[in-house]
Amino acid sequence: MKLGAGDSGFGARGWALGACLSTVVLTVTLPAAAPRAQLAPQRVVSLVPSATEMLFAMGAGPRVAAVSSYDHYPPEVERLPRVGALVDPDVERILSLRPDLVIAYASQTDLRAQLGRAGIPVYSYRHGALADITAGMRDLGTRLGLETQARAAAAEIDSSLSDIRARLAGRRRPGAMLVIGREPQSLRAINVSGGYGFLHDLLDLAGGRNVFGDVSRESMMVATETVLARAPEVIIELHYSDPPSSDAIARERKTWSLLPGVPAVKNGRVYLLYGGELVVPGPRVVLTAQTFARALHPDVFGVR
Amino acid sequence: MTDVRRRLAMSMLVFGSLAFVAVIGAPLLGTTPIRLARVFDRTIPFADNVDAQIFFIARLPRALAGALVGATLAAAGVVFQALLRNPLATPFTLGVSAGAALGAMLAITMRLHLSLWGVSAVTAASFVGSLGAVGIVYAMARARHRGFSTNILLLAGVTLNSFFSALILFVQYLADSAEALRTMRWLMGDLDVAGYGPLLAALPLCAIAFVAFAWLPRALNLLSLDTDAAASRGVDVLRVQRVAFFSASMATGAAVSLGGPIGFIGIIVPHLVRLMVGADHRIVLPASALFGAAFLVAADVVARTAMAPVELPVGIITALIGGPFFLWLLVRQR
Amino acid sequence: MLRADNVTYVHDRGRAGAGAGSASMLPAPDRPALPGVQDVSIAIDRGSVVGILGPNGSGKTTLLRLLAGMLRPEQGHVTLNGTSLASIPRAALARSIAVVPQETHLAFDYSVLEIALMGRYPHLGTFELEGPRDIAIAREALAATGTAALEHRLFATLSGGEKQRVVIASALAQQAEILLLDEPTASLDLGYQFDIAHLLARLNRERGLTIVVATHDLNFAAGLCGSLVMMSEGRVVAAGATGDTLTSMSIQTLYGVVADVYPHHAAGHLTVVPLRRVRRD
Fold first, then answer.
1. B81 neighbourhood in chain C, CB within 8 Å
2. Which CATH number goes with the domain that contains A107?
3. Which of B67, B297, C51, C96 has its CA 20 to 30 A from that of C265?
């Protein structure tokens, strides 16, 4: 074929051949030469709310393509598509979004297998104790090629938490009960945090002594008898929704008057906390720690 | 004294004592040791007396609730077995507890936050659910002309059980994790009423049911023989069946609303009692009520002490005892 | 004494087993739908032994239940000594009329004495327990049927014949003047059939008990009953003294079987010997 201006021998034909050959060589060899894992993921689907928050905290927000049904923070995620959660991940939807990384729970083995068949790498996330939050953040940062930013964000969290711990050093720890669930308007089915998990760690950091700290479980049901026996001085009750009317809050708080002998009830130190951040072991644990500290040591942190 | 009078008196004495000891003794047992002397020590103000608080606020209502629920479920079991002429019938066979469970599930997942007269939304909703189930089953069992078919009753009940169970699973699936945990907890039975309110709410209905239960036994003897034989001996079969069905169903509904669907009481207790006192319902019914009370109170003590401080649901204890017992019964019957 | 006048009762035409009764349960699933009776009139005299014969589906059991007051006729009325059954309270009726059903299925393990004592139900108040007199009557009834020795046995462990006799004893304990039996020999072997026949004859003779028996067994009826009511498809086709009604003709009409009917010398009553089936046209 002719290439426009004049036939210069090797020139035009040579360049064309060279270009073709180079393209072929590069297309074949380059991907094989560079291992896939080294390419920083650009389209991330996160099924784990705490991981989502971590991504935004390290500046990877724009890379998040979809989130779980339970994600509500930061506000930007409300505009993103939803792909289910722990029990009901929407594999089809995930695949249709063509992510290059999916963050899923470690227990979602079926999902990992399915995505693996489609060639999509999965980052397995496991909930742990408080320290695992910042460790997880750093690890996730490495995975996303944002090591520096992740370390910075994690360091900030660590320092804020240490601050709180330092301010309370040496102070007496009041016995506290962390209620993570109960039947509304009654004291049945009281679910508390045992001596394990990030909530317990936060309570400890905020200068409290978990009256159920001797049981190494993340959560457990307790009888009213046990509450009476353990006599907590502070009761912190967690609700993972937006706060209802102040009347409703007062009514729920009043339910505890069924056990007038509990020191926390006697001294009016029953705190009802509302908010989605309470259940997410992510960057916002600092807020939760501060709220706990205010409840446990109002003289140091100011009364709510 | 005739044989039946003697046996009735003996049974009341023995089982009554058992029930009494259980209800009095249970509040004294538990992981936290309390001293009876301290409990009744008037010099210590109640607000400071932990022993008294544990006794009167936590354990005593719980023991009373256990006695009420145990007595009701056991007696209802006897009545249903006679009504359906089948020793394997339970108070839950006809779908009453499935209706109660569905009501409770909906109240939990729809986050109904209200209470009436010390009765929480969950309790009230579960009672309404049980009424609904009773109504549906009864409507289906009424034949077109005057009549009442126990066969259709049984089929309707079993069908309703399956259907409601499916709905319950569906509701649980849609619930978020905190609610799902509470629904599971409710389904396993829980006698920790934390106060006398729920107990007092359930009491009137159970009392009415027990009045009916006092009237039924003779007729139940004849009914479980043969309905024709009963009719020819002067029993108003239709009326007896209606009274038996409604009183036992309402009582079951109240018991399940109070403590959740605690299984196996309604079948283990009647069987054990029959093994001990014979088949005469005039003895079996009251004896089962008393033994049921003692049995459930004892099971609840185990539930709250076995894995302390973790609470084991009492329904698990009764199932652990009941499952093998039931199997043994089936093997024995062959 | 016990009369049915122009009595009609039609069962609900629905699924098998979908009949309904005013005072009784639906039949057990293994029993077929019961037929009705049309415009039936019979009179049972005091002290008589009456047999109701007819093929399956002729309405024998329905008639028996109407006579017992377990079913209310849609037309006509059933009266006892002139009083309509519907106006007699249940307990009082049970003190006058006792029924022995065809089969007795127990759901629970009752003893023989307990079963016999159940016959005392119509004599006791709501919360009354049996007294020594009731127990004596029950024991006497067991003795009358030759089952006194079985008193403490569990009913479920008895043989067919023993069970039937205990059930009869339970009916006797009601101290009723009329005894209605539905197919009392249906599931019994020959020996027990004799026992029941002799027992009923003796009860009639010694106590003046009025007995009405619905049965298939023609020879049993011939030996026991003084008069017969023959039914076919819900209607009475013949009624009267046994000698008059039990003929080859009536048997052929009723059962479609040619049979020889003659007085048997040794047996002392009419005997039926079936010969052959009549060709259906």
1. 107-108
2. 3.40.50.1980
3. C51
